[in-house]
TrEMBL record:
It catalyses: a 2'-deoxyadenosine in DNA + S-adenosyl-L-methionine = an N(6)-methyl-2'-deoxyadenosine in DNA + S-adenosyl-L-homocysteine + H(+). Pfam families: HsdM_N, N6_Mtase. It comes from the Bacteria. GO terms for biological process: DNA restriction-modification system; methylation. Residues 631-658 form a coiled coil. The keyword Methyltransferase applies. The keyword GTP-binding does not apply. This is site-specific DNA-methyltransferase (adenine-specific). Its EC number is 2.1.1.72. One of its GO terms (molecular function) is site-specific DNA-methyltransferase (adenine-specific) activity. The lineage of its organism: Bacteria, Pseudomonadati, Bacteroidota, Bacteroidia, Bacteroidales.
């Protein structure tokens, strides 16, 4: 039986809940029972040894829950796994005594080791108020507990000899996908497709072999938004498989944090069933509270949510960003999209001795935000510290819930000499790197092929310009954002009419004295106007000058330039804010030369206000790999139209003849 078929069989248990549970609540039954059935199958054969150890504890008078939990290592050894059950019950045994099912179910759940009990409580989504009884009490009240338990025991075999750990992880993901899609939620926010994870893992680990595969080496792997843990477990599997091939002993410790209680429960249970205690998996909002605050990691991989706002975390994150040594100090993106916050978080947790980061994103982090914005400053931080190693544009159709362009970013704080101050951009958004799926899964219709994964890895390892890659200097991504000003040009006429049209609050005695002058309506330039006022003994204060220009002046392209001091041609020119413009000048381009050729040629009176210069940074990968596609000729289009018309006429003729 395939993972897809098994996942479908598990999800079909929902038919027992039809008209009793709302669609959104079905997963509250299916997901924990899937876990319980797997645990039940895994623990088969361990009951006798666990019972023997429990008997020894009874003889010592250590029978309280606290006493038993304190002996967790001993009981784990007896069970042969990082979990156990001391109740002596199993799902198979429970259904043999229907009359006592509810009470026995409670005893069965309470018999699990503390780590499993904590996971089961998180499945309820009730946080600190959760109780193990929440798992089954509603089913019992609706007389469905026996039917559901039987459905899992009699129809669904999750024994390790039938379903290995890898397949079990896939089954979990499939069941989650069904659960989320049934209520219109994208499953992609809970897990990342395996083919993408495999590509991300291989690229992130590429070139690190000599550092990883050493006897006795301990490697830490971290995901700050770990979902069901697929990225973590596949990374560990990849490292351990290669270590086995090389005959070296490498220990991989997994760390992750997940916001959603139920997804956290799935992640932790999956890791536990693969032989790890999962002590490094935490539940909570990574942006609000880093549960691994003082820890650094060797490898970090993540697929953070795309385009999800962080308004809820804004006050806390903004306050933290004020500390120049904090994870968010380099800058903050718009509140509408928090992807780059996760990137900053991971960069902050890089080990000074060497770390690699692989993170997926959509296109927003590449170019959103102008010079001086939080987005741009974060990108600048990546390059200033020479952390960014590569960006890979991925093929379309890879994700369950979105068809938008996606990218894999690779960061390294111990780059080899040939990579320093360089960034490799790879255009892997090619059909040649994917293979079609036999059946679409949501919006996912292709898989990264073995050839695609190998070829992308080869291009990255070569780290040089080729047909599908461009090796760039870090300065290629910087630009200077300059402000271009042009002078204000004013004439003054019809002053009395303009004054009469003013709001009464803007009228004042100084302006009224000007309007009272006999020939004030005569057309004058700016210098002539204020010279005339001086001749009439009207004191021209800075405020009066500003008010006159604002209320009485008219813009005229043919008028002379306006100076800050009307009577001093050597004073600065006043800029016309309506003519203000901006230019983004690449770092490697001489600014004066660019200004001469691209601005003064068209606006000879323009100047640059260099005090307003800003340094910007963006990664225009789409522009760099743009391939011009010539438009079809008119002849070809007309030929297609004629062919369609002929087909239509033939169809119509055939219908009429019939």
């Amino acid at each position: 039986m395939t993972a897809e078929e098994l996942g479908q069989m598990i999800w079909n248990v929902k038919e027992l809940l039809r008209n009793v549970y709302d669609n959104k609540d079905v997963e509250d039954v299916i997901l924990p029972f899937t876990l319980l059935r797997r645990l039940d199958c895994v623990l088969v054969g361990s009951e006798a040894l666990v019972a023997t150890n429990m008997k020894q504890l009874e003889e010592l008078g250590q029978t309280s829950q606290e006493d038993i939990d304190n002996m967790m290592p001993m009981l784990m050894d007896a069970a042969g796994y990082k979990f156990y059950n001391t109740s002596g019950l199993s799902l198979s045994k429970l259904i043999t005594v229907p009359a006592d099912l509810t009470n026995n179910f409670k005893t069965y759940l309470e018999g699990f080791s503390p780590n499993i009990r904590e996971i089961l409580k998180n499945f309820t989504g009730k946080g600190e108020n959760a109780s193990l009884s929440d798992i089954f009490s509603n089913l019992a009240r609706k007389n469905l507990l026996l039917q559901v338990t039987k459905a899992f025991v009699l129809n669904i075999d999750l024994s390790p000899d039938k379903v290995d750990n890898h397949m079990m992880g896939t089954v979990f993901e499939i069941v989650i996908r069904y659960a989320k899609e049934s209520v219109g939620i994208g499953a992609g926010q809970f897990y990342t497709p395996r083919d993408i994870v495999r590509l991300m893992t291989e690229i992130t680990l590429l070139g690190q072999e000599d550092k990883i595969y050493q006897d006795g080496k301990i490697i830490s792997v971290y995901d700050p938004c770990c979902g069901t843990g697929g990225i973590l477990t596949l990374t560990k599997d990849t490292i351990e498989e290669t270590a086995k091939e090389r005959r070296v002993d490498v220990t991989v410790n997994l760390f992750g944090q997940e916001l959603n209680d139920k997804t956290y429960a799935l992640c932790k249970s999956d890791i536990i069933m693969k032989g790890d205690e999962a002590k490094g998996i935490a539940v909570g909002d990574t942006l609000l509270v880093d549960e691994f605050r003082d820890q650094k990691f060797n490898f970090m991989l993540a697929n953070p949510p795309y385009g999800v706002d962080w308004k809820r975390e804004y006050d806390s994150v903004s306050a933290e960003a004020e500390d120049k040594n904090s994870r968010f100090a380099p800058g903050l993106p718009d509140k509408s999209d928090g992807q780059l916050l996760f990137t900053l978080h991971m960069l902050h947790k890089m080990d000074p001795k060497g770390s690699r980061v692989g993170i997926l994103s959509n296109g927003s982090p590449l170019f959103n935000g102008g010079a001086g914005s939080g987005w741009s400053n974060i990108r600048k931080h990546m390059l200033d510290n020479d952390l960014l190693d590569a960006i890979i544009a991925l093929p379309g159709g890879l994700f369950y819930g979105t068809g938008i362009a996606t990218y894999l970013w690779i960061f390294d704080n111990k780059k080899p000499e040939s990579h320093k101050n360089k960034v490799l951009l790879i255009n892997a958004a090619k059909d040649e790197y994917v293979q079609p799926m036999r059946k679409n899964l949501g919006m996912k219709n292709v898989l990264v092929s073995d050839y695609g994964r190998s070829e992308i890895g080869r291009i990255y390892h070569a780290f040089e310009t080729c047909d599908n890659a461009k090796l760039m200097d870090k300065d290629d991504f910087f630009y200077t954002y300059i402000t271009v000003e042009r002078p204000l040009r004013l004439i003054y006429k019809d002053v009395k009419t303009k004054y009469a049209a003013l709001d009464e609050k803007k009228q004042n005695e100084a302006l009224a004295n000007i309007v009272a002058l006999d020939d004030i309506d005569t057309e004058r330039t700016d210098a002539e106007f204020f010279a005339y006022l001086e001749s009439k003994k009207i004191k021209t204060t800075a405020k009066l000058i500003k008010d006159c220009r604002t209320f009485f002046g008219e813009v005229s392209e043919t008028a002379p330039e306006v100076h800050v001091i009307p009577f001093d041609d050597n004073s600065d020119l006043v800029a016309d804010t309506n003519l203000r413009d901006y230019e983004s000048i690449p770092f490697k381009t001489d600014i004066q030369e660019y200004f001469q050729n691209e601005v003064l040629r068209f606006a000879p009176d323009a100047w640059m206000d260099r005090e307003k210069d800003k340094i910007g940074c963006e990664f225009p990968i789409s522009k760099l790999f743009y391939e011009y596609q010539p438009l079809r000729s008119v002849e070809d289009i007309l030929a297609d139209i004629r062919a369609l018309e002929e087909d239509e006429e033939q169809e119509l003729s055939s219908l009429l003849n019939d």
